[in-house]
């Protein structure tokens, strides 16, 4: 592949790398734990730090959005010199996860430590590292092209409550619809498959969580006086749970698979070409399980990325204390969650679950089904989408090796952003699945962030030539 002379972006990133790491360390020191009310002030300080950095970098329009119920979000815009250039919105978040159990950290979580090419600290990977990576990319893009404005109009939208489940994201999008108008969203909160197997993510699963309760009587009753003559809610619930999957693991809600989109042959061959060590995966991600299990006809990666799930998260009923208590419990409850794939909708799956529960409620039992919020819709973009193909090309330039498409099994606000803004959303990040995000000793691999910054710098240069659809109204 081309040397540095063909990669002015690479040279520009290298020249800026030291100040990049110094800046990221400063940002990590601010404990912006959004879910903890005691750290509200730190979330604000974190937003202010970011706004200050953007000012220093020369962004002409910077705002901190803190006038609504949402924790402070940062918005910035840098118009392209060419008013006809596409507009790209970069999404990320600056709030971080709590740090407990703090005794499991090798160093204080908000005092960043460098070890070899890794930088340790809460938020180093999720998501401050990847937001800072994009700031670096813009500087490198300008330095490499010698321009004083980017080749595309760049907008930045950095949320302050992603780790709280983005409760006010829809309101922010509604309140700032004009500001956020764009032709493409670039989602930073994502990871590569492995250090030596760079990937472009093309989607995330959605999620719907709920609870089923079966009620028998109003009180527990004596199993000798009434047993055998009244229905047992725990038994009825166990039967329902057993009926949720067939023998082969297929989910039995009526119509559950009707909207499931099969991955293309190209996607499946990309997934199959990725390095994957099942034993290692079981040890790191499978909680030490002894074997994989799931739907026949799909690989483990496909089961996680492109197939929906129904999982029982917890069951409670009756007496579970020491000794024996001979009762028929009054109630039985199961918490469950579904991971959804395109084009399943959480509200439709909610109706399917209600129908399934009604079909499996025996006479004499009353059922209640409730849901935690509206759920998160799934999202996926075709590898053939012109913007997505350009991201892959930019990544291949930066990583000097073939880049494959992948997906993520978890859930995030991608579908909400895509639906509200009405434009395609692509992923560009450079962290790793084993960065221990949300866990003690979170780290980021600095050379990967530099590669990611180079990829983004290539992307800003290449996008005006890519055939991405421009929005008709802006
Ligand atoms: Zn995140």
Attribute tags:
single chain, 474 residues, alpha+beta, Aminopeptidase, Alpha-Beta Plaits, 2 domains, four-stranded antiparallel beta sheet, binds zinc ion
What does this structure look like?
The protein has 474 residues and is α+β, with helices and mostly antiparallel strands. The chain has 2 domains: 4-204 and 378-472, Aminopeptidase (3-Layer(aba) Sandwich), CATH 3.40.630; 206-281 and 303-371, Alpha-Beta Plaits, CATH 3.30.70. It has 13 helices and 18 strands. The chain has helices at residues 8-28, 40-57, 128-145, 169-175, 177-180, 233-243, 265-273, 278-285, 300-305, 346-359, 386-399, 414-421, 446-462; strands spanning 61-65, 73-78, 87-93, 113-115, 118-120, 153-159, 184-187, 199-204, 206-215, 221-222, 309-317, 327-328, 331-340, 366-371, 379-380, 404-408, 425-427, 443-445. Strands 1-2-6-3-7-17 form a 6-stranded mixed beta sheet, sandwiched between helices. A 4-stranded antiparallel beta sheet has the order 11-13-9-14, covered by helices on one side. Helix 1 crosses helix 13. The longest helix is centred in the first third of the chain and has 21 residues, at 8-28. The two termini are 39 Å apart. Zinc ion is lined by residues 93, 126-127, 162, 189.
Strand content: 15-25%
Largest sheet: 6 strands, mixed
* Helix/strand structural class: alpha+beta
* H/I helix tally: 13
Instruction: Give every kind of bound small molecule, once each.
Output: zinc ion
Question: Helicity level, as a percent range?
Answer: 25-40%
Question: CATH architecture of the largest domain, please?
Answer: 3-Layer(aba) Sandwich
The tally of domains stands at 2
Q: Roughly how many Å is the radius of gyration?
A: 25 Å
> What is the C-level CATH assignment of the largest domain?
Alpha Beta
- Total beta strands: 18
Give the overall silhouette. elongated
């Amino acid at each position: 592949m081309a040397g540095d002379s063909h990669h002015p972006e690479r040279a520009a990133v290298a020249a800026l790398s030291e100040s990049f790491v110094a800046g990221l360390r400063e940002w990590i020191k601010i404990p912006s734990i959004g879910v903890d009310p005691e750290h509200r002030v730190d979330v604000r300080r974190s937003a202010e730090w970011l706004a200050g950095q953007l000012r220093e970098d020369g962004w002409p329009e910077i705002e901190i959005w803190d006038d609504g119920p949402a924790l402070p979000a940062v918005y910035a815009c840098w118009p392209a010199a060419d008013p006809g250039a596409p507009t790209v919105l970069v999404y990320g978040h600056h709030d971080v996860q709590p740090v407990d159990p703090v005794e499991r950290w090798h160093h204080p979580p908000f005092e960043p430590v460098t070890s070899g090419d890794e930088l340790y600290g809460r938020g180093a990977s999720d998501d401050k590292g990847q937001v800072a990576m994009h700031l670096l990319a813009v500087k490198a893009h300008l330095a490499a092209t010698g321009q004083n404005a980017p080749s595309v109009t760049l907008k930045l939208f950095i949320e302050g409550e992603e780790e709280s489940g983005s409760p006010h994201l829809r309101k922010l999008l509604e309140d700032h619809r004009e500001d956020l108008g764009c032709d493409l969203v670039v989602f930073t909160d994502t990871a590569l498959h492995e250090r030596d197997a760079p990937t472009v993510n093309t989607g995330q699963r959605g999620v719907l969580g709920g609870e089923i309760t079966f009620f028998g009587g109003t009180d527990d009753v004596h199993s000798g006086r009434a047993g055998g003559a009244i229905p047992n809610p725990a038994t009825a619930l166990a039967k329902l749970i057993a009926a949720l999957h067939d023998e082969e693991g297929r989910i039995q809600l009526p119509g559950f698979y009707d909207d499931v989109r099969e991955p293309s042959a190209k996607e499946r061959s990309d997934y199959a070409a990725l390095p994957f060590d099942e034993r290692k995966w079981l040890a790191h991600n499978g909680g030490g399980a002894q074997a994989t299990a799931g739907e026949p006809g799909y690989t483990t990666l496909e089961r996680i990325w492109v197939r929906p799930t129904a999982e029982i998260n917890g069951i409670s009923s009756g007496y579970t204390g020491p000794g024996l208590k001979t009762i028929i419990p009054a109630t039985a409850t199961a918490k469950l969650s579904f991971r959804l794939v395109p084009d399943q909708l959480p509200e439709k799956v909610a109706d399917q679950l209600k129908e399934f529960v009604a079909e499996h409620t025996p006479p004499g039992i009353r059922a209640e089904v409730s849901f935690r919020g509206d759920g998160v819709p799934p999202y996926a973009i075709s590898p053939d989408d012109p913007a997505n193909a350009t991201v892959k090309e930019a990544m291949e330039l930066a990583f000097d090796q073939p880049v494959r498409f992948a997906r993520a099994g978890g859930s995030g606000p991608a579908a909400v952003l895509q639906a509200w803004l009405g434009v395609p959303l692509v992923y560009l990040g450079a962290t790793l699945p084993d960065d221990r995000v949300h866990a003690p000793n979170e780290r980021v691999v600095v050379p990967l962030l530099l590669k990611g910054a180079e990829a983004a710098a290539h992307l800003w240069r290449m996008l005006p030539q890519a055939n991405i659809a421009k929005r008709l109204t802006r």
